[in-house]
């Protein structure tokens, strides 16, 4: 059922996809869909949650073992490279669904609220990266923790990934390399 919903959202968009279509394509009664997900936005939320971490019910990305290990990484350049890799992997998995969500947000209050929630959640995780760098004394002179958090938030945004990879045709690997170098250049001492 989840795969049917994903395919329909990507093919038709959020507004044009109905729970009945998802039910029909997945051969699951609509009542079951509603029981499992409560609403259409509930389905999209579950899809995005799974895409972000790569596994259903895995929790926040920053709480995953790989991210936690990177927050403790003593080499700031390796730390930023590791987070750039996680960012690439996450964006590759989430880009089609993120486009659906952003497209839906213009006309759907629940979708707009989900965009705001995801942006805040992403920012909270990225502030932890800035905090780890600041506590380690790794930030370039003149770069405050708040500035570092803002730069990380902007550079790691799904919008930048979409511009470079989807719109400009960069490979995901090229994006990761660029992101790593840009984070290092902007945040660490020269």
UniProtKB/TrEMBL annotation:
Domain HTH tetR-type positions: 1-55
Keywords from the named record: DNA-binding, Transcription, Transcription regulation
Pfam families assigned to the protein according to its UniProt record, in alphabetical order: TetR_N (PF00440)
Single GO molecular function: DNA-binding transcription factor activity
Residue ranges for the DNA-binding region feature of this UniProt entry: 18-37
Cross-referenced PANTHER family: HTH-TYPE TRANSCRIPTIONAL REGULATOR BETI, HTH-TYPE TRANSCRIPTIONAL REGULATOR RUTR
Annotated protein name in UniProt: TetR/AcrR family transcriptional regulator
């Amino acid at each position: 059922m989840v795969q049917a919903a994903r395919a329909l959202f990507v093919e038709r968009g959020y507004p044009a996809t109905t729970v009945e279509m998802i039910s029909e394509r997945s051969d699951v009664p609509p009542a079951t869909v509603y029981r499992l997900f409560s609403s259409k936005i509930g389905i999209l939320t579950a899809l995005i949650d799974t895409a972000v971490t790569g596994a259903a019910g895995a929790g926040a990305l920053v709480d995953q073992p790989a991210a936690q290990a990177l927050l403790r990484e003593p080499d700031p350049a390796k730390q930023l490279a590791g987070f750039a890799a996680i960012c690439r992997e996450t964006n590759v998995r989430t880009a089609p669904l993120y486009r659906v969500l952003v497209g839906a947000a213009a006309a759907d209050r629940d979708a707009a609220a989900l965009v705001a929630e995801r942006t805040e959640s992403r920012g909270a995780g990225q502030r932890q990266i800035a905090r780890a760098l600041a506590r380690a004394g790794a930030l370039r002179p003149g770069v405050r923790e708040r500035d570092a958090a803002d730069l990380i938030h902007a550079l790691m945004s799904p919008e930048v990934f979409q511009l470079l990879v989807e719109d400009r045709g960069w490979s995901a690997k090229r994006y990761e390399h660029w992101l790593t170098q840009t984070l290092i250049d902007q945040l660490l001492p020269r």
